[in-house]
């Protein structure tokens, strides 16, 4: 199963769309579509298909210059429609005549048409859709690039994206065959599964094709809210935290490169050095890099031993070029490491991590509280502080009313009153809750938010390795290495359990605690009894893990670890790659909107 | 004899064979009717023309009847509209009736009215003289000639667009005859004015054309264009029959019929001969002046086909065609063609005669040609018996061939089976193989569906293994659509019958059937049928159309497609009288509710507030107010709104939020006053930031006031003050602060604050006063590594020393070396 086929398909569809408008046209993009489009097609591809200029759609733009044909490639959002309507009205007001086409990604929504109608521009536009749903970021990574899924579904109960996810799954299975075994973890996952089934029913083609993926896991983000609150420790996750990775592309500024130029780098498994270090614990990245540097040096010095002109020619033509390239990459990664270290040293990283770990272990609650207060006093960035507060609440299964009041008051005083709304949202999401005082229920109806079941789950699944067992961070034997041995992501742990057991039997209690486990198994693995070593279908050893509401780079690393351990190919699909920063940033109320 | 009914016409032969004995025999006299028949074996429409018989003009409206080609009555109705000038059929077998006033009425073959359109205002005003219905390159066209001798034309009845043709110069009386010629994707009219011909086109151009006629031929009285629009035949007043090319450039012959009478019909038989009809006499004239004469028993109607001519009579329906070349090759007496030999061989073989072997030997090398000829000839026969003998011959010949590809034979067998089925008089489509090739199988199946022969068409599809999506599913959907129109059937039963038949058929759209039912006013049935529709996106809009709002909403929610939910919600909102009613309706559905709130949130925040107010959800209401307060310009307005919010929080007993809001209101009012006093803006600043700014501005009086009022904890306040002072570089104030008695923070904070501003000198001043246990750390912070190491040694703390070592990376080399060298001292001390 080659994910590139998906890319090819998307490319053809895009080409069709572009060619359907003859001659040259301008393209106007939603800001968050530029990167995905770049990954799928690239500028030169667009130019080849007659795209003249490319604009970014921004709030407050009243009009745009350009030629007589314009294509908008946008998500179907109400505000976007209003911007476009603004453009059209202003431009027509100025007497400019243009053919407008709005291409909706991934599909057109009736509500958008309604808005175009009420704005009175429906007559000037033609509508189309471009089903850009999941697209490959790497050989084992698919993304829907919808970062607002988390907020929209878990906070606002908007199920629109569930439909998108289900449809992306249906389309994926059209290409790669229907996946026989499905497991869902969490409520939203179950809903998605049901939606997917009904979509299969509604579609005509029932021909059963050969399938390339044996198992599908759909996982709700709210099953495990702890992982995204933990400090990233793997190289990839830290790169994202420090520089920000978008669609596997990273931009290093002069602090990394050392000269005045910025460097853009594609971070995929194609980069040999990167694929070696991306999942490593940060403590052991530098050692690898320096070893690699020595290797390169050795190859370099080979040139002194070259005898003949022919050898020399060969060396210059091939090895030297590769060497130069690798050297540059190496230098960049080393530079990046330095910047990460510097950033970490600047803040009080050690105490922070220590607090985080003891929170996860559930020890030293008093000290932890003090540290959080200190963070507030020292005016750490609000996300950082909020992260610890959330961790405290998640691991303690809610704050005591006194602590809650104290901490939030300080937080509001420090970072602004608008966060009153933030705290309400966090409460509803179950990220930051108050322990219910026995008996005195809230009169205003059902209590908001969900309770975390951290302690029970921890006990059942042994998420925090036992004290005293030192985790080997260099050649890890347990996936908790991704958080320096402090914690194992619940969803990854569950997937590991299910993959080894091949059944949900025995996980009922855990299922109840994490919002529901469900399985639909169409194809049993060959019975373990009888002839031993009966080869299981290799396709059954391919699993797709779909995260609703995003997953972190740390979790991806953990899954890659499981994949190596169990010899199962795991493909990760996600609505977006998130970090504590992006997740909390989305939820935090901004003043002066 | 196979050639018994062949008549020679020059080099070729023509044959006339009977297709049907008409079922209308004895009931219908064609002489009393206007006849319109549809090509490709289509139906026949008759309009009883009383003017032909009645001596006095009656006002009784005529009756229109439609028969199939075998004379079986399909439907009948009394015409109750204007005077019909011309009747004809479209390519999709719709009956087109062109009225005197230029209005065209379209019916299906069961005389169900479908639509109407007009041929334009002028036609309506001045009335029309005549109309022609013709096959255009887009479908079926209609041309009308008005009483003012102008011609208007449409090329496609499905999308009528009226075009006026150029005028014939000097035409001031009705032309003797006119016709439409289609060439180069354009329809032009050929108009005969006396002995002259004019070709007028859509671009306003006319062209005078000259047929090469003998001198005394007289005026042109009749024109006929061949089926392929390439040839033209015309008659003159003095009985001359001219045959030539349609552009009149070529003349094939001029035949003198010596009849002074204008023929009733002048048509082409295929593209090879012209046929003129005078009452009961049919004259076939070939391009080389050869002719055949047929005498009929009664008056007949002639209909041009692609490969022949249908002769519709009172008792029989006959087909006149040129004997196809391949048939001639096989059956012509004395033919030595391989096909003929094979046919003979097969016949002998049936008789168990050894001659068979001889014949086969004779054509050994050309056996493949022979087989192909026999197969093709079978296709040209109407009688199944003849088909069978020819196919048997082909099959026999095939045995002697080793690697003959069987497709040709199999295909022919299949086609003939289908053809024989549709030719059966109960169906009545007398198609020839050539016509079927041109018409194509999907169209034939469509025509069967049009005739409501669903069973037959499904069987044909299954026999030909046509994919369900194009074949069976589609037909069954048509069947269901037809079924729902049958008003007499019980709805419950009907819904069950339809669902039973269609449920396991993939690709049938129940919504389409339901909308069909709705169109015929059967709402209950439509609702029942819609229930079977698995695609909510099809189901929901129709439910809305039927006014089933609640069901639509439930279905939309169940589908999980929020777009559908929005569709329903917005529809309902626009429909409902008051917003309150609307909200009452959706409030029981949480998904609908939250979606609508999302919608409002993006449209208008105030609306959301109202919704929550109605819902009695004070917490959310307060929340919205808080969010909205930030959109307001003036601080006082904000404070007012927040006071409202506070009341909401009080109402839902959220004292914490209420208190916070109250504090914020107070802060806002302070900020406003400060703004008035100082002229600086304090908007959007938190308490902390306000304090910081005030400290920076040196406004310590206000700082104290705020600090007290908001009960800022000592420690935090100190930290804030220290860093604020350091930030603005107020070092003296900072130092003063550090000397206060019993500070709640350690001096390390001062060091940190100074270092944060990169002021090492200031920082060092505090280091000396730091408590001994923190000194090492602070010395490291200000970069005095050696001193730090020394202090560590003094403290005899290995831990501290290690700490210094771990931070050495930031020190310069020399110092680092020194410090490393000091480890020995530590050991020594211990």
Describe what this molecule looks like in 3D.
Chain A: Belongs to the STXBP/unc-18/SEC1 family. The complex is a heterodimer of chains A (about 600) and B (about 850). Helix content of chain A is about 50%, strand content about 15%. By secondary structure, chain A is α/β, with parallel strands linked by helices. Chain A folds into four domains: about 5-130, Rossmann fold (3-Layer(aba) Sandwich); about 135-225 and about 470-595, Rossmann fold (3-Layer(aba) Sandwich), CATH 3.40.50.1910; about 245-345, Syntaxin Binding Protein 1, Chain A, domain 2 (Alpha-Beta Complex); about 350-450, Alpha Horseshoe (Serine Threonine Protein Phosphatase 5, Tetratricopeptide repeat). Chain A is globular, with a radius of gyration of 26 Å. Chain B has about 850 residues and is α+β, with helices and mostly antiparallel strands. In chain B, about 45% of the residues lie in helices and about 20% in strands. Chain B contains 34 helices and 29 strands. In chain B, the strands form seven sheets. A five-stranded antiparallel β-sheet of chain B has the order 1-2-29-28-27, with no helix packed on it. In chain B, a hairpin with a 2-residue loop joins strand 15 and strand 16. In chain B, helix 5 packs parallel to helix 7 (about 405-425) and helix 20 packs antiparallel against helix 21 (about 620-630). The interface between A and B is large, with 49 and 56 residues.
